[in-house]
Amino acid sequence: MVPFHILGSYVSPRSRTAWKASTTARHAEIQYNTKYLRTHNDRIILENTSLLAEAPRIHITETGNKTETKRLPIALIIGVKKGGTRAVLEYLRLHPDIVAPGPEPHFFDTHYTKGFEWYRNLMPETEEGQLTIEKTPSYFVTKGIPQKVYEMSKKTKLIVVLRDPVMRAISDYAQIAARNPEVKPFSEIVFENYDSYTVDTRRAIVKVGVYALHLTRWLEYFTLNQIHIVNGENLIRDPASELRDLQTFIGVKPHITGEHFTFNITKGFPCYRRNTSQQSWHCLSDDKGRPHPNVSSLVRSKLANFYRPFNHRLYLMTGKHFDWT
Ligand SMILES: Nc1ncnc2c1ncn2[C@@H]1O[C@H](COP(=O)(O)OS(=O)(=O)O)[C@@H](OP(=O)(O)O)[C@H]1O
User: Fold this and answer.
1) SS (H, E, C) 126-143
2) Structure confidence by residue, pLDDT tens digits, 204-237
3) Whose CA is nearest to atom 11 of ligand 1?
4) How far apart are CA 47 and CA 45, in angstroms?
5) Number of Cβ within a 10 Å radius of residue 48
6) Is the dihedral of CA 231, 237, 240, 241 positive or negative?
């Protein structure tokens, strides 16, 4: 049995009673077109709803206060793993009004019981006017996290870096293979049955790429205009344009521009500089932009066929189109 499939239309009592309409024209269109996804017993269920999610009423106020210099994050880069999250974090840290811890805090998925004070203490000191952010890519796909983030602050801004899910899976595999050279071939991991190319949807390497499913969970607590999607392919082609939109979304003055970036031909990726009057360029470490294993075009196309309906759902949900295969 394939444990992860579309069951068809379903309207939950909650979606009928508790979800409310949004006011903007963009939302109105999305409300009309969107079928939300959820899971039940590991199956993906499409929910027809004409309504956007209303955030629940539970609310815990932020623990930081004006006299404290370490503050809880106002924005989180929540995913996706291998989407380009490190690049986005390091680029945003070029902004004088943005501070962030370098390591991933993993607060909401691993250390939540340690409490918000523990979390706040992980953050760098902020001066007046500076904003704190953090990145932990596992947040996007981990059940229960949207509610926890909402309880920290219902105003939290969410950043998701999305990349062609087939390429994301291959990138994830390249990381696994770099750590464990004995790993099975890619095709033996992603297909349950290699003869019929049945995709093994129990595998995390596959599941992460069902972006519409994960986004649906976040939309139960946050509205679409609190979620900013970065185009992971465009982030490599034209980082400045993605950063322009990101700075607007976060609400800082435009500071990071094309002058902060150069394309490093040897690395095959953009590198960046903090000070535009200096020539010292920094590139991300060698584990970003790893060589990928050879994956046949047949395997890629079978996996692309699996993701296509979910990608389409994502386009409807977000109003954003990606040129994925
Ligand atoms: N400037 C720059 N330099 C290097 N790599 C870049 C850059 N911009 C985006 N990318 C892409 O980022 C991919 C790694 O994604 P993440 O940082 O999200 O990975 S992780 O989840 O934190 O491990 C990484 O994936 P791979 O190429 O598969 O290694 C890159 O495609």
Assistant:
1) CCCCCEEEEECHHHHHCC
2) 999 999 999 999 999 999 999 999 999 999 999 9
3) 84
4) 6
5) 12
6) negative
- Choose among 144, 153, 91: nearest CA to 119: 153
Residue of minimum CA distance from atom 28 in ligand 1: 171
Superfamily of domain 67-306: P-loop containing nucleotide triphosphate hydrolases (3.40.50.300)
Domain residue spans of the chain: 67-306
* Phi, psi dihedrals of residue 13, rounded to the nearest 5°: -55, -35
Stretch (H or E) spanning 31: helix 25-33
Q: What is the mean pLDDT of the chain?
A: 84
- Model ipTM over 0.95: yes
User: Beta partners for 270?
Assistant: 263
How far is the CA of 124 from the CAs of 74, 98, 202, in angstroms? 13, 10, 38
Q: What is the DSSP letter of 259?
A: G
- Residue 138: how many CA atoms within 13 Å on its side-chain side? 11
Q: Which of 80, 86, 208 to mutate to test the pocket of ligand 1 (most atoms within 8 A of CB)?
A: 86
C-alpha of residue 249 to centroid of ligand 1, in Å: 22
Question: pLDDT digits over 26-77, tens only?
Answer: 333 333 333 344 444 443 444 433 222 232 222 233 444 444 499 999 999 9
Residue among 315, 159, 136 nearest 242 (CA): 159
